[in-house]
Amino acid sequence: MFESIISAETAQAYRETEYRVLGDAPFVMLVDERSPALAVAHKRHHVDCSAYVTGCNPLSQSLNGAANAERHAALGRELNARSLAFVEGVGQHLSNQ
């Protein structure tokens, strides 16, 4: 095991969150659960791996909406600059927080 700078409570909240992949064929992913829809998306995009990343709230430190919007836009620009394919998504905890 390793020591995380993210609190155990926050890590648990991440495990309980629904990670919604948007785009042409939306689906939901959960931590530690196999996703057949993700396997289909990999085939559709001709890849064998992917990552769910965000520019928002770095290291689980809350930022305001404007700062998060700019970080999200910067991530999109970086992905485009590297010619990496991506699909928008949103993480939503079941408590809606």
Q: Portion of residues in helices?
A: 25-40%
Q: Unreliable segments (pLDDT under 50, ≥5 consecutive)?
A: none
Principal-axis shape: globular
Order of helices and strands: HEEHHE
Number of strands: 3
Distance between the termini: 28 Å
Number of helices: 3
Number of domains: 2
The average pLDDT is 93
Structural class call reads: alpha+beta
Q: Give the biggest sheet.
A: 3 strands, antiparallel
Instruction: Please give the radius of gyration in angstroms.
Output: 15 Å
The fraction of residues in strands falls at 5-15%
Largest sheet: spatial strand order: 2-1-3
Q: What does this entry look like structurally?
A:
The chain is of the alpha+beta class and 97 residues long. It folds into 2 domains: 1-52, no CATH class; 56-85. The chain has 3 helices and 3 strands. Strands 2-1-3 form a 3-stranded antiparallel sheet. β1 and β2 (27-29) form a beta hairpin.
